[in-house]
Amino acid sequence: MRRAGWRPWFLLLAAVGCADDPGPDPFAGPVPARCPVRAAERGIVVTRMRFVKTTMPGVSEGFDLDGRVSGSDDAASCRRRDFTSPEGTAGVDNQLSLLVPVLETQTAGALDEAIQAAINSGQLMLSVSLEGVDARRDDPCVRMVFRQLRGVPFVGSDQRIDPGQTFETARDQPVSEVVGRLREGVLEAGPFTLALPVAVLDARFVLTLDAARIRLRWRDDDTFEGIIGGGIAADELIAVVQTLGIPPELRSLVAQLIRGITDLDPSAEGTCRRFSGAIAFEGRNAFVNP
């Protein structure tokens, strides 16, 4: 009799539990290959870009691109030592940071300023479109599309591109896209292939990042900040360096340095063919005509 008396209460609790069941977790499982088609879209123009440098010896922002924590004894990374993030996470791959001081010597220590000048003049403009955005804090499926832009932007007194402008897509340039997830205002996606424009002084070229990863933070003031990491083909960048208007001895030195920082994509002979890099950026709202 006592057990029979408990039965109605058990059924009531079970019914309440079923009513509160949130259903399947939309963030569970792998990231979808495609997101549902929706009209919601947010356009971003990159207003600042910089090569990520070490904040102190062995410490750098970036991503663990190869899933390894490598030291000088790791043949799989061609014995290139990984970095540690400022938060203490080991395994960060950003060998490009070792090359940045050499690049800075060619700009009298004003590498970041030279890149900013190229952005503000319209020579280096990149957009990121967030498509299918349901909510700015949490969304299990957001498509990101990267496009190069044309035109001369309006620049404010803060020396950044003003928000709310309309830009035209450079239709003769490659377009990259990836699907990611937005959690608590941070969108993460990858790996994917990213065609990244670069403009420094007289150099203009497109750098291909393989197995790229991106982390994009949507700030409360409706601006954006992020970081992109990926692998860069050593031969591709060396070929670009040979076209630059710099002394032959410097071109040779840069090529040698590039060979000395390769840490990804080892060949059967044990030679790494790519090196890791990371680029930080900031962005503001914009309208982009695809």
Describe the model.
The protein is of the alpha+beta class and 290 residues long. It has one domain. It has helices at 2-19, 100-105, 111-120, 234-241, 248-259; strands at residues 41-51, 83-84, 90-92, 126-131, 139-150, 165-169, 176-183, 186-200, 203-218, 224-233, 264-266, 272-289. The strands form two sheets. Strands 1, 4, 5, 6, 7, 8, 9, 10, 11 and 12 form a ten-stranded mixed β-sheet that branches. A two-stranded antiparallel sheet has the order 2-3. The model is unreliable at 12-18 (pLDDT under 50).
Question: How do the helices and strands line up, and which of them pair or pack?
Answer:
Elements: H1 2-19, E1 41-51, E2 83-84, E3 90-92, H2 100-105, H3 111-120, E4 126-131, E5 139-150, E6 165-169, E7 176-183, E8 186-200, E9 203-218, E10 224-233, H4 234-241, H5 248-259, E11 264-266, E12 272-289
Parallel strand pairs: 6-12
Antiparallel strand pairs: 1-4, 1-12, 2-3, 4-5, 5-6, 5-7, 7-8, 8-9, 9-10, 10-12, 11-12
Helix pairs in contact: 4-5
